[in-house]
Amino acid sequence: MPAVTVENPLTLPRLPQPLGAVREREVLAVTTAPSGFEGEGFPVRKALATIKPQYLDPFIMMDQMGEVDYAPGEPKGTPWHPHRGFETVTYMIDGVMDHADSHGGGGTISDGDTQWMTAGGGILHKEAPPEWLVQKGGLFHGIQLWVNLPGSQKMVAPNYQDIGRSNVVLLSSHDGGALVRLIAGEVAGFTGPGSTRTPITLLHASLSPGSRLTLPWRKDFNALAYVLSGRGGAGADRQPIESGQLAVFDGFGPLPGLGTEGEGLTLWASGSQESRSPNLEVIVLGGRPIGEPVAHYGPFVMNTQEELAKAFEDYQAGRLGTIPAEHA
Which positions are annotated as binding Fe cation (predicted)? Predict the structure, then answer.
């Protein structure tokens, strides 16, 4: 897994050692992501598909793309398609992905890079492996996350952020047993490079066998942990989790039955791991719930059915952008 790594995590800035006074959030549920296909047929695991929307807000969906080792001619992407009302975040762990959009954004990401696209009022884009990778084949693995925008920002101008692996903030657990790659948001006073319109935190943690990681967490954020590979436990109650599973933590917002506000998220890696994945690899994410109605259909995420109908009308009328001439 060639996302950004270091030989000795203890050379990095360290997260604070957990204190006994900090409450660790418990796990409300652990679910297994169903498998499916997206775009032109690349395999995904739909990490958030079985979770109630009130536990996900402000997130809409997250797909684990792959992990798949393509033969020559097999790599696939997504053709040109529209979006409105939210942001897409693509984090590549293995392989290469090209992005192009109707607002002039575009670039290539691989091995720890991230593309962050604000669709806002409307955009056309495509993501696909470069031609040389289609011909050669190879390993492909990453995630795509959809982050909702509040109604007041759904029609903002589109934007594109290219977050290179060298800009990701690297942190160590207090004892060096875990490496944290902070992509966006804030943890323990450290801030990731991603600029977020909706307040969120997004990170990728690697825990060595037998290690423990406790992340200070904002009281007004929800919290989710998705296992890319490996096995271990999550929460104060040490719920077992493994590859392809999502842990939903308690402790956010005014919703009934969710417990008091939490201040720390804890993950453990089992003492033995799979030979192909020596560490517990986890995507941890959370954000401040928007608390607005969600009308979601296909590539559009709005507040009302009327706004959804308007998005389709605008797309069909060509008001969401034009494919650049060099890509037409």
Answer: 81, 83, 125, 127
